[in-house]
Amino acid sequence: MASKLAKGDGITLSVEVNPSRGDQPEVREGRGVQEKSPESTWHGFRQKIRFLVPYLWPLGSALLQGLVMLCLALLATERLINVFVPIYSKNIVNELTSGSSWSSLATTVCVYTLLKFLQGGGAGASGFVSNLRSFLWVRVQQYTSRVVQVRLFAHLHGLSLRWHLERHTGDVLRSVDRGTSSINNLLSYILFSILPTIADIIIAIIYFVSYFSVWFGLIVLICMVLYLTCTILITEWRTKYRRAMNTQDNAAKSKAVDSLLNFETVKYYNAENYEVCCFEEAILKYQESEWKTNASLALLNQTQNLIIGCGLLAGSLLCAHLVSQKTFQVGDYVLFGTYIIQLYTPLNWFGTYYRLIQSSFIDMENMFKLLTEEKEVKDDVDAAELVLTSGQVDFDRVCFSYSEGASLFSEAVLYVCVSRSLILHDVSFTVLPGQTLALVGQSGSGKSTILRLLFRFYDLQAGSIHIDGQDISKVSQSSLRSYIGVVPQDTVLFNDTIGNNIRYGRVTASKQEVEDAALAADIHDKILTLPEGYETQVGERGLKLSGGEKQRVAIARTILKDPRIILLDEATSALDTQTERNIQASLATVCSNRTTIVVAHRLSTIVGCDQILVVDEGRIAERGRHEELLAQGGLYAAMWLKQQNSETDTQTDQR
Ligand code: ADP
Questions:
Q1: Residue 276: CATH number of its domain
Q2: pLDDT value at position 574?
Q3: Phi, psi of 192 (to 5 degrees)
Q4: Half-sphere exposure of 96 (CA within 13 A, CB side)
Q5: Mean pLDDT of the region 135-146
Q6: CB 3.0 to 4.6 Å from 331: which of 94, 115, 120, 441, for a disulfide?
């Protein structure tokens, strides 16, 4: 059951009432990611508002702009109605006490009822005007949500591989979620809660001064100033508790997400109890800061109540005194009472909205951080499209390190300072058009890194990579990647059908083309044995498929993409020898006449390659054809011998 916002300092639009907990409103709070910043939420306020405005004013849509204007007009109408309701309430009392005619009384009652219908029944029950406004605002809100979400999503996809590897997906998603709703919340809180409340206070003070006396205006003014000051001061003071609570909450949620994502590993190591204990510890920490937050909230609410109570007492006593002196009529007391209650009711929410705005700013801050995250690998402003003519690949003295900032060094300093962290040292080679180059070497020697650099997941620290004479750092990334097909070492699939996973290679491919690709990758028959064939869901990250099947899906995808340059990163490592042979044949067809770079573990699969490079600790230790390398009697020959021996051993064992 959802109700409107309850008084308190919850941080989202919705409050859920849980019947099992005695209808206590349960306020879910929007919490930001990495809320460690000690500075006030209002820091950079103007910049944030400047960021908000374009989302409020839907450029390019006259209809939505009209809706915004209409909503603002309705807001002004509400202010007007708020002035007239107490006046009509007073008129009714005065007409009743002075014995006016029935027709005049009936008219006054009808007008009063109409105004109340438009205004709403108090205690948060919204009237016709605000209901209409909320309804009209939905489209504007949807526009804002869509624009923000799409912009963020596109930005996240534009960020570099390094950024994605270093981030907690759970944190990022929460940041996106909260950031998006924070913009909507901010707009509606500021426009429809804070501004109207402030406008109502100003109108009330003017009205009291002009209709009653300057004393009434003064009482209201002092009361309001005290109220707002205390609310803001106490709320700002509480912020540190809230930030701490949110950080702890994020830690607990991240822990839960990480633990559930790795549930297989948890099972392997029988670590369920350990995971549960860690989670409980995180929750306990969160609850400690939650307690402080709630205790300070109680203090805030009591202070607000006290101020409002004092203001009401002073105003009511003064008015009652003046009525008893016959300076005012009874109706005037009713006017005062109605007006002041009408004014104080939304004020009760002021603390809540102030908190909501503050918290939305925090959420927005985190989203800002995401949005201002620089792309590490950027296209040049005037980046040309890669024009692939024959498909020659050249690596020229390439040096690379995964540690960030190394590119700031000059080449000489680079060698001295970071040579120990360099993954690739002075790597140079050429793959002629249509030829196949194989990279072999120990695990961790840098073979996959070479492929990642050709795909431009990272920029180089020194040297250059050219395709058909064009430096890949000078051409657009999308044009570069459109020509390259990759079959990675670990294939991760989308939680979708197996057919759609293959189609990912070319989303416009027909059913027949998908099936042909699957056939070429030797997975078609296997798919037909699955309960729903190509419509079978593969599970999260493709967990329902074996490593070999996933690799074959990846090969099928690449076949479908039909690229001019193919990178195979131990593409058949997860397959058994028989399947590997089948696939080798289809891979040979796919790769024929295409420039291919293969990272291979099993040397028997690369004997026919045009060139073999032996990578050792990031350097090219040997290069040549299979026979030449064997004749050299170096690292390659040793590896070959070792593999031949182990294969012979396996065959003997099998016999
Ligand atoms: P290979 O493919 O030869 O097994 P890789 O090219 O994957 O080796 O890795 C080479 C080295 O770079 C390894 O020591 C590995 O730990 C390191 N490495 C790989 N990826 C990253 C990364 N994203 N960040 C930091 N170091 C990495």
A1: 1.20.1560.10
A2: 62
A3: -105, 0
A4: 11
A5: 89
A6: 94
**Over 90: is that where the pLDDT of 582 sits?**
no
467 shares a domain with 350: no
Cβ of 444 less than 6 Å from ligand 1: yes
Summarize the confidence of residues 459-484 as an average pLDDT. Answer: 91
User: Do 290 and 416 belong together in one domain?
Assistant: no
Residue nearest to atom 6 of ligand 1 (CA): 446
By alpha-carbon position, which residue is closest to atom 26 of ligand 1? 402
Q: Which of 339, 371, 403 finishes a domain?
A: 371
Can you give the pTM of this predicted structure? 0.70
Q: How far is the CA of 375 from the centre of ligand 1 (A)?
A: 21
Alpha helices (H) along 262-397? 263-268, 272-324, 330-348, 350-371
Mean pLDDT of 540-567: 84
pLDDT of 127 strictly over 70:
yes
CA of 579 to the centre of ligand 1 (A): 28
Residues 116 and 240 in one domain: yes
Same domain, 356 and 398: no
- Residues 353 and 421 reside in one and the same domain: no
pLDDT in tens, 527-540: 899 888 999 888 77
User: Per the domain annotation, does 98 fall within a domain?
Assistant: yes
Q: Which domain holds residue 581?
A: 393-483+563-654
Residue 470: name the closest of 589, 384, 342 by CA: 384
367 plus 398 within the same structural domain: no
Please tell me the total count of domains within the chain.
Answer: 2
Nearest alpha carbon to residue 518 among 539, 510, 591:
510
Percentage above 70 pLDDT, the chain: 87
Q: Does 388 fall in a domain? A: no
Is residue 200 within 8 A of residue 343, CB to CB? The reply is yes
Where is the domain boundary, 371, 406, 426? 371
Mean pLDDT within 109-122: 86
Pocket test for ligand 1, best of 422, 448, 573, 616 (most atoms within 8 A of CB): 448
Q: Is 418 found in the same domain as 321?
A: no
Per-residue pLDDT at 54: 76
As a whole number, mean pLDDT of residues 87-113 equals 89
Give me the pLDDT at residue 125, please. 59
Decide if 428 is inside a domain: yes
The answer to whether the CB of 448 is under 6 A from ligand 1 is: yes
Of 592, 626, 559, which is closest to residue 433 (Cα–Cα)? 592
335 CB-near residues (< 8 Å, 6+ apart): 86, 87, 89, 90, 211
> Could you give the C-alpha distances from 440 to 340, 426, 639, in angstroms and in order?
83, 17, 9
**Joined tokens for residue 652:** 């003997």
Predicted confidence (pLDDT) at residue 268 exceeds the cutoff of 80: yes
End-to-end Cα spacing for the chain: 70
Tell me the CA–centroid distance for residue 613 and ligand 1, in Å. Answer: 18
CA distance 488 to 492: 9
Is the pLDDT assigned to residue 466 strictly greater than 90?
yes
Q: Ligand 1: distance of its center to the CA of 424 in Å?
A: 10
| Whether the CB of 166 sits within 6 Å of ligand 1 | no
The fraction of the chain above a pLDDT of 90, given in percent, is 24
Taking residues 265-290, what's their average pLDDT?
Answer: 90
Q: Are residues 305 and 415 in the same domain?
A: no
In a domain, 628, yes or no: yes
CATH number at residue 633: 3.40.50.300
